[in-house]
Amino acid sequence: MIEFGWGGASETGPVRRKNQDRLMISDPMFVVADGMGGHQAGEVAALMAIETLALETRPKSVEELVEMVEAANTAIVERGESDVTMRGMGTTICVLAGLDIDDQSMLGAANVGDSRLYLSSDDGLVQITEDHSLVETLVRDGRLTRKEAAVHPQRNVVTRALGIDPKVLVDSWLLTAIVGDRYLICSDGLFNELSANEIHTILTEIGDPDAAAHRLVDEACAAGGHDNVTVVVVDIVGLEHSADPVEDRVAEFRPALPRVEKPAPTVVSERSLASRPLFTWRLGLFVASVVTVMAVLMVSVVLYARSGFFVGVDGTEVVIFKGRPDGVLWFDPTFEESVQVSVVDLAPSDLEEVTDGVQFDSLDEAKQYGFELFVRAENLQP
């Protein structure tokens, strides 16, 4: 048996109208679910996932933990099929649970979607789970860098979720439990607002797990709170059967899909510049000219980046953004309002359009297009 310490917190945030996140703390199981689906009741999907796992909170193995997540998926899919108002709802799920395997205290983890499990250690914040998202796929394919992915306008588009398909792909892990370790489970509303260093600093400086959870949520909301924020902090306080200390806590990773390893990218080193005078009057004139040009360009970029609106995708929901679909430099598009349409209800041609982002000069034009999407989606319903 493992003795846990824990704390949790969840907030709607200053931007969203309702909280579609749910959390469960039921020793020895800890869960975060981030509901998706807008008017298709994402919060219902998240709650159903939590309630299904709550029926059996003591899995005996990683395999049993995965089966529990699969059962939650089945329940959500069946609810959507039987109730047209719930069709298309979905949720992410991230679970950490204590296990007793062969007289050894271990941890099991399971994940679907882009909610995350972290280990906070002296070396920093280690992400255990892998996001099932569009940008994570592009990063693994070498088409985006981590830095580009962090600000990509489609970073909230998930590629896996409970409730979308009868067959769900669940990644799972067997972890070695070590006394003193601290784990963090969270929705994307946390790590999209706070950096890994900011999260790790709070987890390191605040000893009480409940106080740490509430501080993380408060800081994420203060940093912008563009999405719901949910956090569960779990401490390993004691072990009935102590494990030998290991540097890598991941004893086994069981991806739902086979992994294809790619060669690491080649690093091209830069040649050092030959020694030369650091500053001349010509250089001073050049720098002054560049600064002036850059100032003019920056004003132009800001005006361009914040002009116009577009209809795009946020998770599984169609929404209106202010700005440009791909952003401009560090000026990301911002959420304006929901269209109240789920991507699963769209015709293929409409889905292709909104995935790329449909641009308009005014908010009224974007609203009119959104209304037309809503009408076409409603007409497609059986």
Observed structural traits:
single chain; alpha+beta; Phosphatase 2c, domain 1; 2 domains; seven-stranded antiparallel sheet; five-stranded antiparallel sheet; 16 strands; 27% strand
Would you mind describing this structure in some detail?
- The protein folds into two domains: 2-254, Phosphatase 2c, domain 1 (4-Layer Sandwich), CATH 3.60.40; 280-382, no CATH class.
- The protein has ten helices and 16 strands.
- It has helices at residues 42-54, 62-82, 134-140, 146-150, 188-191, 196-205, 209-222, 281-305, 348-356, 363-380; strands spanning 2-11, 21-26, 29-36, 90-91, 93-101, 104-112, 116-121, 124-127, 171-176, 182-186, 229-239, 250-254, 309-314, 317-322, 334-342, 358-360.
- The strands form three sheets. Strands 2, 3, 4, 5, 6, 9 and 12 form a seven-stranded antiparallel beta sheet that branches. The chain has a five-stranded antiparallel beta sheet with strand order 1-11-10-7-8. Strands 15-14-13-16 form a four-stranded antiparallel beta sheet.
- Strand 7 and strand 8 form a beta hairpin.
- The longest helix is centred in the last third of the chain and has 25 residues, at 281-305.
- It is globular, with a radius of gyration of 23 Å.
- The termini are far apart.
- Mean pLDDT is 85; it is low at 262-278.
